[in-house]
């Protein structure tokens, strides 16, 4: 019996050692992503990207919302792997050509492409930095350039090997969403209600086409053509900027007060009934999220901390590592 006991103990110890060894070598997203990921191969990558992004920003402010939106749309479909940047070809319709992505401004793509070129022009850095990581860095940089918070980013993502328009369906928040729909979609990506509210505040910069909110100012219901949650004065201004017969592609600022500054004005606007989308205004009209809106409307610094935390969590969604991805030589084309 004593010999059998020794064998059992020995087997158990051996199992634990094998399991421990396996766990030690299996890469995890947490272990893969780190702030100094490129320290040995391209130590100045962040300053290189920042310089390229700053140059693009000086050309047009659209760089800011376009890059932020590109990052969001990328991470919500297939994870943060730059799959949204792939161009369609004869055999495949890529993510960027799904109807929900057709409104992505070209300046976001151009920002990443130019930053990638700047990185690859540096000896030792060529083909060492993924497009996915460049998009993460560029997003942080445009937010900072718009006088928003600056923060450290985690790096180490590979570029995705798949990009299909069919994968976009049902993966991106819609302007008509209510709180339950918003929470469910963000929860599917490991993000909380607080994360969702913080990330929604990216609407403090950028623009929207009239077609995206026309129903709120003309066709809300038979008895109320205008959404009653809209501030009447704001609704009238929206009608002036987007008359019924206007080209639906005409765009207006999403934040009517500080459209070129990344700040907490978004939440102050919600308190005044000036959320452009139903999915914006619902954050204040629904009592489950109203208190968070009030706190962040009062304290920009508190909002910034929550936003940085949410962006960090978003940047971990669906990260590709090892053989699940690679580093593209051209952000818009899969490596041959």
TrEMBL record:
Matches recorded under Pfam families: peroxidase
Stretches assigned to the Plant heme peroxidase family profile domain: 32-335
Site (Transition state stabilizer): 69
Residues binding Ca(2+) 2: 204, 255, 258, 263
Annotated residues for binding of heme b: 203
Compartments, as annotated in UniProt: Secreted
Coiled-coil positions: none
Residues given in the record as Ca(2+) 1 binding sites: 74, 77, 79, 81, 83, 95
EC supergroup of this enzyme: oxidoreductase
Enzyme Commission number: 1.11.1.7
Cystine connections: 42-125, 75-80, 131-331, 210-242
Identification of the protein by name: Peroxidase
Active site: residue positions: 73 (proton acceptor)
Function: Removal of H(2)O(2), oxidation of toxic reductants, biosynthesis and degradation of lignin, suberization, auxin catabolism, response to environmental stresses such as wounding, pathogen attack and oxidative stress. These functions might be dependent on each isozyme/isoform in each plant tissue.
Database matches in InterPro entries: Haem_peroxidase, Haem_peroxidase_sf, Peroxidase_pln, Peroxidases_AS, Peroxidases_heam-ligand_BS, Secretory_peroxidase
GO biological process: hydrogen peroxide catabolic process; response to oxidative stress
Family note: Belongs to the peroxidase family. Classical plant (class III) peroxidase subfamily.
Primary location recorded for the protein, binned into one broad class: secreted
Required cofactor(s): heme b; Ca(2+)
GO CC list: extracellular region
């Amino acid at each position: 019996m004593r010999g059998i006991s020794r064998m059992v103990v020995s087997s158990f110890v051996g199992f634990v050692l094998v399991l421990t060894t396996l766990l030690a070598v299996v890469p995890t997203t947490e272990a893969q992503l780190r702030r100094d990921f490129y320290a040995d191969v391209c130590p100045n990558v962040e300053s290189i990207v920042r310089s390229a992004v700053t140059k693009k920003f000086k050309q047009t402010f659209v760089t800011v919302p376009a890059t932020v939106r590109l990052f969001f749309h990328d991470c919500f479909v297939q994870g943060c792997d730059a799959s949204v940047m792939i161009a369609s070809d004869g055999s495949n319709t890529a993510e960027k050509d799904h109807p929900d992505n057709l409104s992505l401004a070209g300046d976001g793509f151009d920002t990443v492409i130019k930053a990638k070129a700047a990185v690859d022009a540096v000896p030792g850095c060529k083909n060492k930095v993924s497009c996915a990581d460049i998009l993460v860095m560029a997003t942080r940089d445009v937010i900072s350039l718009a006088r928003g918070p600056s923060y450290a980013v985690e790096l180490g993502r590979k570029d995705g090997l798949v990009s299909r328009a069919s994968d976009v369906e049902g993966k991106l928040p819609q302007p008509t969403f209510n709180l339950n729909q918003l929470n469910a979609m963000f929860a599917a990506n490991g993000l909380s209600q607080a994360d969702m509210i913080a990330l929604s505040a990216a609407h403090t910069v950028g623009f929207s086409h009239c077609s995206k909110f026309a129903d709120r100012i003309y066709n809300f219901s038979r008895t109320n053509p205008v959404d009653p949650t809209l501030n009447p004065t704001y609704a009238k201004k929206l009608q002036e900027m987007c008359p019924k017969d206007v080209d639906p592609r005409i765009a207006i600022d999403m934040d009517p007060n500080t459209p070129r500054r990344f700040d907490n004005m978004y939440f102050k606007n919600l308190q005044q009934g000036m959320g452009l989308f139903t999915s914006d205004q619902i954050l204040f009209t629904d009592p489950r999220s109203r208190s968070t809106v009030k706190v962040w409307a009062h304290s920009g610094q508190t909002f910034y901390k929550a936003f940085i935390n949410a962006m960090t969590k978003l940047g971990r969604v669906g990260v590709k590592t090892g053989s699940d991805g690679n580093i593209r030589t051209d952000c818009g084309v899969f490596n041959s």
